[in-house]
Amino acid sequence: MRKVAGVDGMVLISHGTEEMNWLVVSRELNASELRPEVKTTRISLAFRLDKSCNGEYEAHLDQQPTFAYLPLRKYGMRFILQADFSLPSSREEVDHDSAWNQWLLSKFPDLFVTALKSFCQLSFYKDKHVRAISAFMGFVPLVGEVHGFFSSLPHMILSRLRVSDCLLLEGSDHEWIQPCRALRGWNNNARSFISDGLLQKHVSLSYLNKDIVLSDSLAKELAVQEYSPNLLVQILESLCGESDNIGVLSVEWLSLWLNSFNMALATQSHEKEVDLLTRLRKVPFVPLSDSSYCSMTDGPVWFPCNLSALQLGDLSVIKQFQYLYSNLRTVSPAIFSYCSDEYGGAKRRVENVISILHKLGVKQLSAHEVIKKHILEYNFGEGATETKMELFVEFVSFVFEHFQSHCSECCIEKADIIEKLRKEPIILTTSGFKSPVAETIHFSKEFGNCILVESLICGTGLTWHEVDTTYLNHTKYAVAKWREFFKDLGVSDFVQLLEIQKQVTNVDLPVRDWVSPEMDVFVSEISRTGNLEKSKYLLQVLDELWDDYFIQKVDEGSRPMFFLSTFVKNLRDFKWVASSWDNELHFPTELFYKHEPVFSVVGANAPYAIPKITSKALLKHLGFKVEVKLDDILSVIKSWTNSTSHKASISQMSKLYLLAWDEITLSREKLSHFKSSLCIFLPFIHPPDQAEVVSGVFLSPAEAYWDDPAGCLDLIREMSQEGFPTSTVSSLYPDLYDFFVNACGVLESPSPNKYFQILLQVARVKSPKEAGHVVLRVLLRWADDLSSGKMKSEQLVELINHLVKEESTVLPTIQDRWVSLHSDFGLVCWTNRKELIEQFAVAHNVYFLHFGELTDAEREALSGKLANFFQEIGVISLEEVLSRKAIFYDVVDNSEKACMVNWVLPYAQRYIYSKHPSIYLQLQQVENEKLSQLNVVAVQRLFYKNTLKENTISSASRLECTCLLEGSMLYITTDADTHSIILELSRLFFQGASNLELANFLHTLILMSEVGSTEQQLELYIKHNQRLLDVPAGERTWSLKSFTESTEEDTPIPVQIHTPFQQTRTIKRKNKSSMWPPPSSEVASSSQMSADDCPKMEKISVPKDIFEGEIQTMELKDIPVSIQKDELSLQNQDELKSYHTGRRGELVAYKYFTEIFGTACVKWVNEEFESGLPYDITVEREDGDTEFIEVKATQSDNKDWFIISPAEWNFAGEKGDLFSIAWVFLFDSRKPKVSVLKNPLKLCKKHVLKLVLSL
């Protein structure tokens, strides 16, 4: 025996001359869960395929043995099954109780199902999937065919196949479906009318490929559906079970279905046939002549004519009244129509359809007594819909023609038939089907009506019913015959007044009254729709007919004088008359009759009835106004105010107001009523010509003002492109002051709140650029009122409350945005300085008030009275919140500048004490510490950026300057002139504002000193010319802090590491003094020293290689402390040695920090000259903050203290975590060490450091 592996899983087994082809499919399984010692195991299936004589491969379906590497016995399967089964020692049977075997068995169904794919991939089946499926299905074991351990395998395989897509659709090689979705046994006749989509939608089946071979038993096991009469019924039940589905299909389709069903039914037993027919009678599928469908259980159904006629195709009997016949529940004739049928003769098909309908219970129709038994008994209760229109027309036509036939029975019963028809809505009119008893029906002109009513009813939707002309086209009879027939039914030509009896109060007998439902409908519909043309035409018709036709009935002498007929009363009670004033309809009693007595009072601006009528009786009955009264004037004014635009002349309106004034002066009651209704006409054109008719609006007295002192209303009117009415009445009606102000309550001028409301209106329609000047005029008016006392305190509070609301955006800004003083808008301020506005114009949440281009007077007012008003309402000046941030380069020797500033400070103290005592007191109480911390820093170049206080916003550009005061730092450039320095210094005393008078005074003293003036001469000038007082004894003399440190006996504050067993003591240092006036001065104060004694800055370069190796970081705990340590001592030391130690320490610290942060972020401020600043190094951090480093150095290995100046200690407290002390240890020049004390003030509070005071 020889084995040769082929392609696609095929294996060729040769045994002698016999060759066997096997398709082998295998799968590797993970076995570690059941047998940890076994990682994987393989299971396989082998299917034998024999090659036939014609070259095709067919399934070899003999039983095959099961393998466990070696063959076992046969279990009834037609394929080989191989796995590593557990076997007993006899190897005769697979162990039934082995969990391992059960697990292996459970894996074969999935492998078997996947084998179908391998079949289809075989080269000889590749394009013949149908043959592959047929071959595969031959190997499927059925329940009962397999026994022993594998007896459950067929059920498992079949279960997998039922839910797998293992069958192909008809006409496709790639659309797979589950067996339960497949339909077998179908024929071409069935598929001709049951489409794939229809089959899928209604029974969820698809046509199985007809070439797939399945045994009946296998098909049943796989739940493959069989084509049968039951399936046809299921499809029809599903179609009829969904709304409108049966209507989608044609009657031709039903004919085909009935034909197929009748033929399929022949194969069924009698019991099944009865059951299927019973089910079918409940299905509403029978097509009727009216295109509807019904079931046989809904009632009797008839054939449209006798069966012989249907078989011959003669349907002419139903054509004349096809809708009538269709309403008789007759089967649609279309279902019997002849058509080509390649699957059977057409005649045969008709016979099959008749046969099955007859079995279902369809009967032949009897046409006797159609009128009595069908038409008169028809249920008209719901009226005729559009689909029933032809039916009802045929009903009437059928009766009409039947009456023309002179039927003996109908002649006897004609009156009864007419009476019954009158009660039903059976006559087709232009408004649908109507009953002559329920509603009046009219002839149209086509039926001989001579009255033309189209102009009244055309397109209005009125309920004016005319007989439809359809009847004239339905039969051959003349119009006269139809008129006679319809008159019998109650149709008429004219509008009628119907007589009724009405009981009237205080009258014993009933009064004859007249009503006209037609006229009531006319008037009510015109009133509802507002059709002006129909209104005018109806009034014209009434005017023409009133005296000849209507007056005879509405003016009967037998009625009481006070009684109005219902007909006339209804004409008065509807708004149906058009007016010359507007496009609305009115009650007749609301309108004027246009003649001289009325026109002379109100002119053309009154509501006149149109058209003008000529019948005096109609004028009286309808109640039109023929004279003008005070209430009419109020009504006219009200109608004017309701219009969006009104045209009038000032002359005409003046006469109207004068007439009203004359009327209301006679009665206070009339005055009160008139005031509540008065509106004042204000034109858009200003000033208008008195006689010119112009457009305008009406305002109430509360909305108008006699005068506008601010003039903003005129400005608003000039700005408005759409027209803005002036609200000042005095310019229009100057002679009616008493009438408008005293009588009607017009305000003499707008209140602050009114002005505010006006600004709100302006802000809604105009941008700040357009209306900023208007706001300025209002603000100036408010400022004047506040200063003059016209604006009360409560009005100011109310105004402020308005302005701080978020929605009260009436303040214009340079950003062209309306804002209020609400906190959400951020900073709202004002300034006259354009350069500041330019710097902060794009700043976030910063808004500058802007009023457009101002005149010189307005600019002056802005800085004067308006600035005070801004202060009152909470609008601050930009200068109040502005600070300047210094940017400087190259710190240089500050000795000369510092000495000069220190020299003028006592004189500034005397000046402020004498000239500004309140400021001096404030400086002593609040600013004393700030004065004591004043420092002078000399630099080469100096710039500044403007910054908003309490805000991180800075200007984008920087400005160069020669001197700048920032906090307690006075920055001065080397080329700064004396006057500029002193002027900048004056800001220190006047809350950031420079004081020219103080600067001039101090500059004069400096000039006098420079030209050689003695101290006595300076004192004489101070006391006699400036009249300055001496500072009281005991007051501290103002001076720079650096000079205070050098002249006072207080020594710098030592700082000591807090370690036990340490002692400190201090020694006083020698005093030093300033060097001003310069040496060139001939005379100096006794308290001053020469320039030689003033310390000078020396540029010292420190060698960069003073140490080698790496700078080490020393923790605070590692600072050396021993019993033999340096005592805390402030006695005189070698100053040059100390200076060099400090410079070396600063260099070590500078290198230490540059290695950490980089040279770009670290700056040594004392690199070339001693700056005098309370820090030595700055570090720019990534978050934008600057850290300040003060360097302390020592060469002692036992020193645990250092000296810190008051300025340094105060600066440390001010900066907090941004200030550190770098303590540099130089006792080992090769390996210096650095300890960083961050925030020494906090370290003292935590007792890590301690302060020591020494005398």
Automatic annotation (TrEMBL):
Domain Protein NO VEIN C-terminal: 1145-1234
Source organism, top-level taxon: Eukaryota
Pfam families associated with the record: NOV_C
GO CC terms of this entry: nucleus
Chain segments carrying region Disordered: 1068-1091
InterPro entries to which the protein is assigned, alphabetical: Auxin_embryo_med, NOV_C
Biased composition (Low complexity): 1081-1090
PANTHER family listed in its UniProt record: PROTEIN NO VEIN, WU:FJ29H11
Name the UniProt record assigns to this protein: Protein NO VEIN C-terminal domain-containing protein
Taxonomic source organism: Rhynchospora tenuis
